[in-house]
Structures
1.
Amino acid sequence: MARAQVQEGCDMNSFIRQRLPLLVTAGIFLLLFGAASLRYAYFCSVGNVFNLFSSNAPLGVMAVGMTLVIFAGGIDLSVGAVAGFTNIFVTALMETHGWHPVPAMLAALALGAVLGAAMGAIIHVFKQPAFLVTLAGMFFARGAAYWISTASIKTTHPFFQQLTDLTAKVAGATVHPLPAGILVVVLAMGIMLAQYTRFGRNLLAIGGSEPSALLMGLPVGATKITAYALCGGLAALAGLINTFNTGSGNSIYGIGMELDAIAVVVIGGTLLTGGRGHMFGTFCGILIIGTIQAAIAFDGSLSSSWTRIITGLLLLVFILLQRLLLRATLKKT
Amino acid sequence: MKWPEPANRMNKSWLASVKKSPAVWPLAGLLLLGLINLIFSRNFFTVTELDGHYVGTLMDIFKNASIVLILGVGMTLVIATGGIDLSVGSVMAIVGATAAVMMKNGVNSLPSVIAVSIGLGALCGLVNGLLVSWARIQPIVATLILMVAGRGISQLISGGDQVLITNEHFNYLGNGFLGGIPLAPILATVLYLAVWIWLRRSATGLFIEAAGDNETASRFAGLATGRVKCLAYVVCGICAAMAGLLEVSYIRDADPLSTGQYKELDAIFAVVIGGTALSGGRFNLLGTYLGAILLQTLTVTMLYVGVSSAVAPMPKAVLIIAVCLMQSETTRRWLGRKFRRAAT
Amino acid sequence: MAAAENPAPPLLAMRSIGKKFPGVTALSGVDFSVRAGEIHSLLGENGAGKSTLIKVLTGVYTPDGGEVRLAGTPIAPASPRDAERLGISTVYQEVNLISSLSVAENIGLGRQPGKFGFLNWPALRRHARAALARLEIDLDVDTELGALPLAIQQMVAIARALDMQAKLLVLDEPTASLDEKEVAELFKIMRQLRTQGLGIVFVTHFLDQVYAITDRLTVLRNGERVGEYPTASLGRLELVSKMLGREVRDEEGHFVQGGKTTANSLTDESAAPVLEARQIGRRGAVHPLDLTLRKGEVTGLAGLLGSGRTETARLLFGIDRADSGEILVRGKPVKFSSPRAAIALGLAFCSEDRKVEGILPNLSVRENIIIALQAKQGAWRTLRRAEQDKLCAHYIQALRIKTSSAETPIKNLSGGNQQKALLARWLATQPELIIVDEPTRGIDIGAKAEIEQLIAKLRADGVAVLFISSEIEEVIRNSTRIAILRERHKVAELSGEEIDLHRLLHEMAGAGKPHE
């Protein structure tokens, strides 16, 4: 019948349209990684691939949290500062106040989540723009970090040292499994959360249309606040991972990192205005950014500033692409 | 339905209009901070003459506020159209690096350095403006692109490192005095006057307010709302360029990473504290001016009561959230209910 | 009468419902009842109270008085969610689903099958397929909702609504943006649900659809119930006259003549046309139509709500792009891409939606008046303040705009005074053609009379006026020529002596159609 035909026509288009940003992301990653592998020897080695994960672990973990917030149509600009705060907070607790690393780390994660939840509550209850509230959150967290110490603190606690120095040999290369491991676990849990839980689907529904989500009886406020809390907690985790990586705490850590995290999410094919996206895309996004950085480092002749310029260009391309897709959808109906 | 009051209460209207002006709040805040300083620090208001220059805390406040003052002009206009520009800090870095590199390579003619810088700022603003008005991308998203890429561009221009500026004519911009008063705040104040006259004497100010107040109605009334928005972003880019020049001239050094860092936030905060609503519409340049001074005074006051300048973002954050919560509908409704309950 | 045939209590019984808003009584003592297994239409023009009644029913508003019973039990829904739980589901004209999610998710959101918060996707899909199968819809449930035609989206919304064990389904203008084929699909489903014993409230502006599918109808006017009728027993003409509150026959059964004024005799075919529209139309808005607007004439545009009046005006003013036909201004073909282009050619459009499309709420009366003229002149040719003040003082006096000063924010003015200020805005541009869409809606009688006088004066000054109003007598009083729209078609044009209330109602109702 006529309707069946219409649907078939839609199905093909919509299948591609829904997945186009994700396909483009995956394609870009393969293209970049392939080109870099051809050009630079050892680029496609186990050690380098592992390194891709461990050196981008903080950004990746942060991006997972950011994805959740952006799904719901929000944004969190405070994540970089929260990571910096955690970084110095944990080391200060251990070194200056003599805490054991485990309670110190748990306290740091909890603080990140509480700050996130507080911002989420202000955004939701007082209907304030997310970017403004989280900008203030960024100021707050960064100021608090400087308050603790403006000088960097080296960790000396033996238990923490053990964590930091944890290495493994994989296919002849010495690697740090802890950051990479955390990233993989967080990504897997993120994909699970986004794809297979009510919470994840509710986030996308709220980002798609908050009034509709309310009418459908979804717990809008609780879901949004939880997303910000998770994002804050993951940002704190990102700060922790950096402490593992460097063995020290530094209050200037993570400046500008929120922008990278947003870029990773958008390059991963998630709509920056919310309602549409895949956590798997964020995984691809982190690989793309990591590959660009690694390739520039391998090259040696290119200035590192190209990372930001290329990131900006990719942002532009993806935002325009999604705008076009949205227009095409609107025109159809 | 609210019926207008009769027009014959002229004597009351002066006080009423002062009360209604959004500039009252930052002014009250400034007075409060002044009072605190009067109590806690003896020489806050002391201005002494040193080598023919007036120096003192007040002068420092004006001098250090001038960058945010200048950014605030452009940001006020962008916010009045219902937008936001997150890229001004990065534009400052691009412009600062360009100017420094030009002078390093022997272009020492001040007018050409300034002309190129302003042109560059206008170009950045145009890119933002086109993304917002033509591609219809949300302002936060559109300006985020340049915010991210801008730092890289600035690093590329400067070669990745800081570029020292030895041209003392240029450094006079940020460090010089005019009639004993620091030049930078004078320039900023002149900019405010010039823009205020331009906006209020031509219809441009009205167009910006109309586009921000009700875009659909403005379009239906024949306004080219896209062009108006674009113009606001271009002006904002130009202001960012001027602020960037001033900052690198003041420090005598262009650093692609730290030039203009967090300045977009200070500018937005100054505008919000100054009483221009983030939802757009009526703008208040005087309010922004006072807001910028207030932010700087707060930083200095914190310093006086023993909070280091690095920690100053914390109280700033608390202040801005407090201002937002005070302005929010939820709070007003809640307070309204409280008052009504108290009355009955 | 019906109660005698059917002793069982109706599915829904709303009794003497009242609802007041500050300054307005939206509903007073309204009764409304729906039986199980019937499609019941709720009809009325603007301000009749339809949407308020629906909102009381679906828990958006709490009524000031009266009671609501569902299947005999008194209920008081506190929110749309609450109403759904009680068995009252609503599908709105603008589909309130999430267009970026799949069909299956839209049906299941909030009550997905699964354990510990984890989803069982296969079960969710099966569930959605089953829900759609009840409506005999075969659809890939993984399709993104937004990629489907609106009619299908609406059916998905119905599937979701029914999934909640609904007893009563409220369809609030579901057909407003559907084409005929899609409407037929929707009707098929509605009939099916009727046989399943559901009660359906169907709100629509299209009389053809009312006669095609409903069993009974309730007419509201000015917040009161006019009556409840079996659809088959009420002719179109009677229905329209009840909706508009105009009796077409007097007590002895003669047709009422009325509403004639001197305005009607002022047609002049030789007057130069300011604007000619030839076969101008737009899919989903209005079918191609011809319209000629002449100097010194007031052309009325009559038709029921949803007949395409405003849509026509939007095409003429370049707000929406026409996809057929051409427009000639003073004999020259033009292509408007924006209101700006139309204004440059001497057109003006005073929108029916004052709040969204008219006023700049926080700006002063003065700024609101001069904005169009200033926009027309451009930023560089600024009106000096003295000129602005003079202009405003002139219009405030001439139109008797009540405001404490020209500097008061326009949002503080009453509706009528806002309307006059908006008219002043357009008069200041000295237009050759002014389109006024519902200029008298929601304003007091005194202001209405003044606006009518103003229109007469404009006509005398040689301006072409396109006058759009729901109040049919107002159209007759003011127009020299009347174009009649019905269901997005132009069905007739009357001028001079032909103008007559009965004929107008006849054309608006499509009384020549079957079911009469």
2.
Amino acid sequence: MTALVDSPLVLGQHSFTSRLFLGTGKYPSMDSMVESLAISGTQCVTVAVRRMQLGAPQGKTLLDYLPRDKYVLLPNTAGCFDADHAVRTALLGRELGMGDLVKLEVLGDPQTLLPDPIGTLDAAKTLVKDGFTVLCYTSDDPVLAKRLEDVGVTAVMPAGAPIGSGQGILNPNNIRIILERAKVPVIVDAGVGTASDVSIAFELGAHGVLLNTGVASAKEPVRMARAMKAAAEAGRDAFLAGRIPKKLYATASSPTSGVIAGE
Amino acid sequence: MEQAQLRITVNGEPRAVPSPSTVADLVASLGLRADQVAVERNKKLVRRAQHAETSLCDGDEVEVVTFFGGG
């Protein structure tokens, strides 16, 4: 029996056998989140840094639902529109999580949630210098992706489509160019809508996929999480297996010689 | 004699705390555990180890944050 192995995805000091990363936002309930994360097989989940609600009775917090021996936490800098804000948020996230991973986002505009390339680059430089393992949300611009790699981010994370838009990989050509030139892992992050989007990302050669809305806002998040797990494995295996080329004309699958005489 | 107070802002809301107070005092008065939260004072992170040593001043802007669900 052939052994079908894959290497783990290494990000800084972390080594992951699951290449699917899930967010923890927008679930209809904590139970739904807990079940979805579990069935997806993910080992690393994003979390946001936000003001504590003061005055309300302190019940369970998010951390009570994310056992540290099961999930590596990836604090994000969502909601930050300039580099300083993102850096401050990253510092708070590190203080909370006691880990050095950060998903860096510096947004350029609230409607598209596209990254601000200049703010992203500035914040990336500062955080890399401060010892963070930076996984950097970016657009599918191959030039920016390379610049971010050059300043030392551990992974570049190009969006397939706008955050939460569910449109899938809008520009596979740019993702392929980024993959061809990158010397760091490339994790497609944002815009994933359904299972086939995940498979497509892995078939292009992506090292990982990060998604949130596609599962959390599905009609059945747990079922979709299961689908995403299967899609990730299918896409990754298909990529490693080496697909056949696309041809204009047919090539028969059955022998062309030895055919019995015709009429 | 009434204890003096400091007028600070916590998470964008005005708050009066006794003078003197440290960050540790504030966290405790909010009914929170230091390991559940991270604190910024005037846009600078205050490490947990320094909560008890960091005094609050009149006009301080404090952020008390934790993790929430997010993508």
